[in-house]
Amino acid sequence: MYELQTTSNFRKKYKKLAEKNKKLQNAIEKTLELLRSNPKYKSLKTHKVFLSQYGEVYSSFVTGDIRIIWMQIEDKLVILLLDIGGHSGGKGVYK
User: Fold this and answer.
1) CA–CA separation, 63 vs 86, rounded Å?
2) N or C: which end of the chain has fewer CB within 10 A?
3) How far, in Å, CA of 28 to CA of 73, rounded?
4) Taking the domains of the chain in order of start, what are their residue ranges?
């Protein structure tokens, strides 16, 4: 099992998304559980999006347009959740 840690950016965006939509909140929680047990689980469609100075950064599927951006802390069973939001658009997580 991986330990999930969050950035303030992730917490702020999660709160904004989850408070508006209970169904989306449930989908996010399910995704977080899958990440915790196996970040490469097939339904997460996890893929590397870029390489930062701190390591590889990944994207995992929540819903049709919502993605979680994260990185694994090297040599540890820790996943740092960096961002959550839309896949596309001006406020997308890939911008």
Assistant:
1) 9
2) N
3) 21
4) 3-86
